[in-house]
């Protein structure tokens, strides 16, 4: 018989995994909602952050510095991708732009994986070394607690930015009506750049959060991307709240399925959920 | 974009391809390595023909080719072993099962008016489910250690004719390719081809003149998935060993997409030209030790550049160049029974 305290521990880990999923989901949702580009390279951005952070840690810096440097590097990389590849993609529109977005970001993933694997052949982790915490008889993983705290703060800040600031409002204007935004003097291209850079950093944070608990290899990049896709399908590809709730929900589902029936079935449950949602309400994503 | 050449020209081209590839093993002087490369080339071309039918002609982006091919290969082998019968009997069953999966996906997508993005995401998810099952269902698939794949009794033929088993497989695949191209030509030069073009141009308009959009898309989905499942079994037979890693998204779908776009969407020769170029590049990369580890990076870059700048493909570009130079034997504007955009 499984005790309640064990279940609480599993739930906490599930919540931490959920934060990771939510961050990736938010990353893909922001960009698709704004510019119809489905960023299939998002998982690789997450991996890139882990690799950069590992390099910084190895050079003797602390974990916090490493995380900050990693996020800045990934954001800059996002800026380069936006200015080069995406500029070309945004030239076309409608269905063609969506297809081009898929293919070029897919190409980017394959390209980056191919480059990175030459320099980072093994698996990397960024352990937080905080041990476990005992709460009411339940043993909780310390890193999970920290991850959930970081995730909550970051997502709250993101929401504050989109709701409260002028830039955030401009962003939501473009979300809703691109022409209307243009008419009131908002430059959609600029906003897209800003949001793409932001989404790259958010995905990077997702990667760092994941690496706190498990090892990350270059080949995980595409797997992360598929997680992000699943979240955006289940949550609705234009809805941030949807992405966050889907992330947390599936994180919990996955962790419990992992605990009770094993990881292979858990992963299939994840994909099956996405397929069912896709078939049940395709309008959420188109 | 230029129009499709006449049926006569296309049949002649296919015949040339058949002769060239029938003689190709002579050119490699019995090197069993290069015979493998040639067989691999033809198998990739076959996958690309299937993708051409479903994606090129009806805009349904199937991103679970690896999964379907694997499903075909595993099902053929597992059924043959379980029932202790020849893989020749189980192959059509497996291919049919793949076809039905494709049919179902296309039917549901067409019924629910899925956009190309939705279909691609749906099939990508299915691809990952397939991959998980190939690795995870250890009891049936052997998991990530796989099992030897030596079905179809090719050794018997090899002994009887007095040639290598590899060559028997090669000619078998060549036969399949020529037959598939023949079928493809019949398809696109028939009312199906016209309906496909109409649907691709404007689905609503096609519907309004009485074209059953759901039916045609479903047929395309079935045909492509059936072919992919069929080819999948030979794909595994060619390596002699089946592993889940051989049927991943990156290993199959990405390569086949590049092949089709390099060669040219909606052209008959595109899949073969594309496969020749891509397998050529692969061989060049693996010949140099220093380049081998960069294979994936180079293909990724290729995918980006191709889609941004070269979506019309080699076949159409070559045709344009030839007609600019006045070197083509196609009468201007004539002999085209199917206009493509």
From TrEMBL, chain A:
<dbReference type="Pfam" id="PF02653">
    <property type="entry name" value="BPD_transp_2"/>
</dbReference>
<feature type="transmembrane region" description="Helical">
    <location>
        <begin position="63"/>
        <end position="86"/>
    </location>
</feature>
<keyword id="KW-0472">Membrane</keyword>
<keyword id="KW-1003">Cell membrane</keyword>
<keyword id="KW-0029">Amino-acid transport</keyword>
<keyword id="KW-0812">Transmembrane</keyword>
<dbReference type="InterPro" id="IPR001851">
    <property type="entry name" value="ABC_transp_permease"/>
</dbReference>
<dbReference type="GO" id="GO:0006865">
    <property type="term" value="P:amino acid transport"/>
</dbReference>
<comment type="similarity">
    <text>Belongs to the binding-protein-dependent transport system permease family. LivHM subfamily.</text>
</comment>
<keyword id="KW-1133">Transmembrane helix</keyword>
<feature type="transmembrane region" description="Helical">
    <location>
        <begin position="140"/>
        <end position="162"/>
    </location>
</feature>
<dbReference type="InterPro" id="IPR052157">
    <property type="entry name" value="BCAA_transport_permease"/>
</dbReference>
<feature type="transmembrane region" description="Helical">
    <location>
        <begin position="37"/>
        <end position="57"/>
    </location>
</feature>
<keyword id="KW-0813">Transport</keyword>
<feature type="transmembrane region" description="Helical">
    <location>
        <begin position="224"/>
        <end position="252"/>
    </location>
</feature>
<feature type="transmembrane region" description="Helical">
    <location>
        <begin position="259"/>
        <end position="280"/>
    </location>
</feature>
<dbReference type="GO" id="GO:0022857">
    <property type="term" value="F:transmembrane transporter activity"/>
</dbReference>
<feature type="transmembrane region" description="Helical">
    <location>
        <begin position="6"/>
        <end position="30"/>
    </location>
</feature>
<protein>
    <submittedName>
        <fullName>Branched chain amino acid ABC transporter inner membrane protein</fullName>
    </submittedName>
</protein>
<feature type="transmembrane region" description="Helical">
    <location>
        <begin position="98"/>
        <end position="120"/>
    </location>
</feature>
<dbReference type="GO" id="GO:0005886">
    <property type="term" value="C:plasma membrane"/>
</dbReference>
<feature type="transmembrane region" description="Helical">
    <location>
        <begin position="194"/>
        <end position="218"/>
    </location>
</feature>
From TrEMBL, chain B:
<dbReference type="GO" id="GO:0005886">
    <property type="term" value="C:plasma membrane"/>
</dbReference>
<feature type="transmembrane region" description="Helical">
    <location>
        <begin position="168"/>
        <end position="187"/>
    </location>
</feature>
<dbReference type="Pfam" id="PF02653">
    <property type="entry name" value="BPD_transp_2"/>
</dbReference>
<feature type="transmembrane region" description="Helical">
    <location>
        <begin position="61"/>
        <end position="79"/>
    </location>
</feature>
<dbReference type="InterPro" id="IPR043428">
    <property type="entry name" value="LivM-like"/>
</dbReference>
<feature type="transmembrane region" description="Helical">
    <location>
        <begin position="269"/>
        <end position="288"/>
    </location>
</feature>
<keyword id="KW-0812">Transmembrane</keyword>
<feature type="transmembrane region" description="Helical">
    <location>
        <begin position="114"/>
        <end position="137"/>
    </location>
</feature>
<protein>
    <submittedName>
        <fullName>Inner-membrane translocator</fullName>
    </submittedName>
</protein>
<feature type="transmembrane region" description="Helical">
    <location>
        <begin position="85"/>
        <end position="107"/>
    </location>
</feature>
<dbReference type="InterPro" id="IPR001851">
    <property type="entry name" value="ABC_transp_permease"/>
</dbReference>
<dbReference type="GO" id="GO:0015658">
    <property type="term" value="F:branched-chain amino acid transmembrane transporter activity"/>
</dbReference>
<feature type="transmembrane region" description="Helical">
    <location>
        <begin position="294"/>
        <end position="310"/>
    </location>
</feature>
<feature type="transmembrane region" description="Helical">
    <location>
        <begin position="218"/>
        <end position="236"/>
    </location>
</feature>
<keyword id="KW-1133">Transmembrane helix</keyword>
<feature type="transmembrane region" description="Helical">
    <location>
        <begin position="12"/>
        <end position="31"/>
    </location>
</feature>
<keyword id="KW-0472">Membrane</keyword>
<feature type="transmembrane region" description="Helical">
    <location>
        <begin position="242"/>
        <end position="262"/>
    </location>
</feature>
<feature type="transmembrane region" description="Helical">
    <location>
        <begin position="37"/>
        <end position="54"/>
    </location>
</feature>
<keyword id="KW-1003">Cell membrane</keyword>
């Amino acid at each position: 018989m499984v005790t309640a305290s064990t279940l609480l521990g599993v739930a906490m880990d599930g919540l931490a995994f959920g934060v990771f999923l939510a961050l990736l989901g938010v990353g893909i949702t922001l960009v698709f909602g704004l510019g119809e580009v489905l960023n299939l390279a998002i998982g690789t951005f997450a991996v890139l952050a882990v690799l950069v952070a590992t390099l910084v840690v190895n050079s003797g810096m602390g974990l916090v510095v490493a995380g900050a440097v990693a996020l800045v590097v990934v954001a800059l990389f996002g800026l380069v991708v936006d200015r080069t590849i995406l500029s070309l993609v945004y030239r076309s529109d409608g269905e063609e732009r969506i297809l081009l977005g898929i293919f070029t970001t897919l190409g980017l993933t394959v390209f980056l994986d191919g480059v990175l694997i030459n320099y980072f052949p093994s698996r990397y982790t960024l352990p937080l070394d905080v041990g476990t915490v005992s709460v009411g008889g339940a043993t909780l993983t310390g890193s999970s607690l920290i991850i959930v705290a970081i995730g909550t703060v970051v997502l709250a800040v993101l929401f504050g930015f989109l709701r409260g600031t002028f830039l955030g409002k401009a962003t939501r204007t473009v979300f809703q009506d691109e022409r209307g935004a243009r008419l009131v003097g908002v430059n959609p291209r600029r906003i897209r750049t800003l949001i793409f850079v932001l989404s790259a950093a958010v995905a990077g944070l997702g990667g760092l959060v994941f690496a706190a608990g498990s090892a990350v290899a270059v080949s995980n990049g595409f797997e992360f991307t598929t997680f992000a896709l699943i979240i955006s399908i289940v949550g609705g590809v234009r809805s941030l709240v949807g992405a966050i709730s889907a992330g947390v929900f599936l994180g919990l589902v996955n962790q419990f399925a992992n605990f009770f029936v094993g990881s292979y079935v858990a992963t299939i449950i994840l994909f099956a959920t996405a397929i069912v949602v896709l078939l049940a309400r395709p309008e959420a994503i188109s | 974009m230029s129009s499709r050449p006449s049926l006569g020209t296309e049949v002649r081209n296919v015949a040339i391809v058949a002769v060239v590839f029938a003689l190709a093993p002579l050119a490699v002087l019995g090197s069993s390595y290069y015979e493998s490369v040639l067989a691999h080339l033809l198998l990739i071309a076959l996958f690309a023909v299937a993708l051409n039918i479903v994606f090129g002609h009806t805009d349904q982006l199937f991103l679970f080719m690896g999964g379907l091919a694997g499903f075909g290969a595993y099902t053929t082998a597992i059924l043959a072993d379980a029932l202790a019968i020849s893989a020749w009997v189980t192959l059509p069953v497996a291919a049919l099962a793949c076809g039905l999966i494709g049919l179902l996906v296309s039917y549901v997508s067409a019924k629910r008016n899925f956009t190309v993005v939705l279909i691609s995401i749906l099939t990508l998810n299915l691809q990952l489910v397939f991959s998980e099952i190939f690795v995870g269902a250890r009891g049936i698939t052997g998991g990530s250690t796989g099992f030897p794949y030596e079905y179809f009794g090719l050794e018997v033929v090899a002994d009887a004719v007095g040639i290598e088993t590899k060559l028997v497989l090669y000619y078998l695949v060549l036969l399949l390719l020529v037959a598939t191209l023949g079928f493809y030509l019949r398809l696109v030069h028939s009312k199906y081809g016209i309906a496909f073009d109409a649907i691709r141009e404007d689905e609503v308009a096609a519907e309004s003149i009485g074209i059953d959009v759901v039916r045609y898309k479903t047929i395309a989905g079935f045909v492509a998935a059936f072919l992919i499942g069929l080819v999948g079994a030979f794909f595994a037979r060619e390596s002699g060993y089946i592993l889940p890693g051989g049927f991943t998204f990156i290993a199959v779908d990405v390569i086949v997409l590049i092949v089709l776009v390099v060669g040219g969407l909606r052209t008959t020769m595109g899949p073969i030209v594309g496969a020749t170029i891509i397998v050529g590049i692969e061989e060049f990369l693996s010949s140099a030790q220093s380049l081998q580890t960069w294979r994936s990076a180079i293909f990724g870059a290729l995918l980006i550049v191709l889609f941004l700048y070269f979506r019309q493909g080699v076949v159409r570009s070559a045709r344009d160049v030839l007609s600019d130079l006045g070197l083509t034997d196609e009468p201007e504007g004539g002999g085209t029974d199917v206009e493509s955009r």
